[in-house]
C-alpha cells in the first residue's frame, strides 16, 4: 500500500498529465496552469494568489523556456502583480 505525502501547500503544475502523475505521490490541492492559458484566466490567477498568501504554494514546471515563463508569471502573481 502506497502512502501519499501530505502537503499543506497547493502545488502548481503545467498540465493535466503532470497533475495525474503527481496525484499518485502527494495528497494536496494540485492546480494546473494549462500551459499559457493561465495568462488569460483571472480566476485561476486569483486562486493561486490566495493560496500563496495563505497556505503557500509549490511550483513544479518543466525546465524549458515555457516552464520558465509560466514560473515567472506565477511569481509575479504572488508578488501582487497584475493578474
What's the layout of helices and strands?
Elements: E1 5-6, E2 10-13, H1 16-23, E3 26-27, E4 30-32, H2 42-54, E5 57-60, H3 65-78
Parallel strand pairs: 1-3, 2-4, 2-5
How would you describe what is shown here?
With 83 residues, the protein is α/β, with parallel strands linked by helices. The chain has 3 helices and 5 strands. The chain has helices spanning 16-23, 42-54, 65-78, and strands spanning 5-6, 10-13, 26-27, 30-32, 57-60.
Bin the helical content. Answer: 40-55%
**Whole-number average pLDDT?**
93
Provide the structure class.
alpha/beta
Strand proportion: 15-25%
Q: Span between N and C termini?
A: 42 Å
Measured on Cα atoms, how large is the radius of gyration?
13 Å
**How are the strands of the biggest sheet laid out side by side?**
4-2-5
Biggest β-sheet strands, sense, barrel:
3 strands, parallel
- Give the topology string: H per helix, E per strand: EEHEEHEH
What would you call the quaternary organization?
A: single chain
Question: What is the global morphology?
Answer: globular
Instruction: Compute the number of helices.
Output: 3
Q: Got a strand count? A: 5
Task: Give short descriptive properties of this protein.
alpha/beta, three-stranded parallel β-sheet, two-stranded parallel sheet, 42% helix
Amino acid at each position: 500500500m502506497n502512502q501519499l505525502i501530505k502537503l499543506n501547500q497547493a502545488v502548481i503544475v503545467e498540465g493535466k498529465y503532470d497533475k495525474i502523475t503527481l496525484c499518485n505521490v502527494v495528497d494536496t490541492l494540485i492546480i494546473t496552469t494549462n500551459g499559457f492559458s493561465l495568462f488569460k484566466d483571472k480566476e485561476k490567477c486569483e486562486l493561486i494568489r490566495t493560496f500563496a498568501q495563505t497556505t503557500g504554494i509549490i511550483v513544479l514546471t518543466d525546465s524549458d523556456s515555457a516552464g520558465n515563463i509560466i514560473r515567472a508569471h506565477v511569481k509575479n502573481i504572488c508578488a501582487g502583480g497584475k493578474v
